[in-house]
Design brief:
By secondary structure, the protein is mainly β. Helix content is about 0%, strand content about 50%. It has no helices and eleven strands. Strands 2, 4, 5, 6, 9, 10 and 11 form a seven-stranded mixed sheet that branches. A four-stranded antiparallel sheet has the order 1-3-8-7, with no helix packed on it.
């Protein structure tokens, strides 16, 4: 499975971005899909995940501001990010776990994208 993220960029605080994660090489409709981020000098953290019935998980830091969704026809997962804050700055990665049962950022994600940079000033 290949994952390609897009949609990152530089925005001012309070702005919005929508990240996309396009998958190829397999149909990911039965996969647990996740978004992670890593800020310079910090450990990678799980931001959000979505299961096969579009049940979602969010880190406390992004609840009410971020929305994860998936379009199985396009084999794509999205992360809508609103009211962005400087602390949201980091490299954002998409990940996929073929085991679409229990789904959270704690899953063993075997497939990762290269990341897309988000900078909030």
């Amino acid at each position: 499975v290949q994952l390609v993220e897009s949609g990152g960029g530089s925005v001012q605080a309070g702005g919005s971005l929508k990240l996309s994660c396009a998958a190829s090489g397999a149909t990911t409709s039965t996969y647990c899909m996740g978004w992670f981020r890593q800020a310079p000098g910090k450990e990678r953290e799980g931001v959000s995940s979505i299961d096969v019935v579009s049940g979602s998980y969010y880190a406390d830091s992004v609840k009410g501001r971020f929305t994860i969704s998936r379009d199985n026809d396009k084999n794509t997962v999205y992360l809508q990010m609103n009211n962005l804050k400087p602390e949201d700055t980091g490299m954002y990665y998409c990940a996929a776990d073929p085991d679409g049962g229990l789904c959270s950022p704690s899953n063993d994600f075997g497939y990762w994208g290269q990341g897309t940079q988000v900078t909030v000033s």
